[in-house]
Amino acid sequence: MRLRSLLFVPGDRPERMEKALTLGADALILDLEDSVAPANKAAARAAIADFLTLSQRERVDSGDSPSGVRATGHPHPSAASRLPPSPDGRGRPFLFVRINPLDSGHLDDDLYVLAGNPDGLVLPKAEGAESVWRLAGRAAVPILPIATETPAAVFRLGGYGPVAEHLAGLTWGAEDLPAAIGATASRDETGAYLPPYQIARALTLFGAAAAGVNPIETVYPAIKDLDGLRRIAEAAARDGFTGMMAIHPAQVPVINAAFTPSAEAVAQARAIVAAFDANPGAGALQLDGKMIDAPHLKQARRILERANP
């Protein structure tokens, strides 16, 4: 499954959902949490369930059925088999729902949206594998935990391996954590993350790699600063993140471009793979005057998977 861009859509704004299908995002996150006031949550659940039911019916009618399809590159086929084909080239984006936190008192009501057959759930304030187990026991869909929104969560980022088969990836957030630890900001005056949040970001990356799932970069809140977004997204792709969440439609093409390997990178990756294919017993080779070995081959294959989902 390729998830370069995941666009949030408020659950109480049904008129935005249909339009969001056409914006080029690899996934939509229909939100029941922060963007929906308590008084509007019931209406948002109903709107999301109706939208999901209609959208999934149209997907099946068009032949783009989620049934039994293994998502390319996903290390856990039991989760991947519940996902539809990649939206690249045809079809519609994956449809996720961000529910409210497990202990918010909204869980039973939020799971009403499962009647619409979402492609996955986004779990806010996840605190390690235990949170995933709790939700997976009630929802047989892939789960994307937001895994750094409480202090306890940060210390459990290395423990998602046992629940990897239930995961659509692992992501993080820097908006709730400052309040939880008594901080006044997560970024400095240049927009760069302060040290505590740099740590949370890095541990999310390592935690996802340890679990064998895709790491997803958090949102960039300055919606008019597309140059800043481009820098952040390109840095995330460089560091190993495979996608990024978005909060505005204008951010989607910038994010997609950052997480799509360039033609030059694809050509180089193909050359590395071809060199090892031609020398199957070699542990290290020279290519264009440089030494390449097993880590280069692994990275090359990863680039080709991302370029050809």
UniProtKB/TrEMBL annotation:
GO biological process: oxaloacetate metabolic process
SUPFAM superfamilies hit by this protein: Phosphoenolpyruvate/pyruvate domain (SSF51621)
UniProt cross-references to PANTHER family, sorted A to Z: HPCH_HPAI ALDOLASE_CITRATE LYASE DOMAIN-CONTAINING PROTEIN (PTHR32308:SF0), LYASE BETA SUBUNIT, PUTATIVE (AFU_ORTHOLOGUE AFUA_4G13030)-RELATED (PTHR32308)
Keywords: Lyase, Magnesium, Metal-binding
Region (Disordered): 59-89
Entry-linked Gene3D superfamilies: Phosphoenolpyruvate-binding domains
Residues reported to bind Mg(2+): E149, D176
Organism of provenance: Sphingomonas changbaiensis NBRC 104936
Entry keyword DNA-binding: no
One GO MF term: magnesium ion binding
Keyword S-adenosyl-L-methionine in annotation: no
Coiled-coil stretches noted in the UniProt entry, renumbered to this chain: none
Domain HpcH/HpaI aldolase/citrate lyase: residue ranges: 4-54, 95-249
Descriptive protein name: Putative citrate lyase beta subunit
Cofactor: Mg(2+)
Binding site for substrate: R98, E149
Stated family: Belongs to the HpcH/HpaI aldolase family.
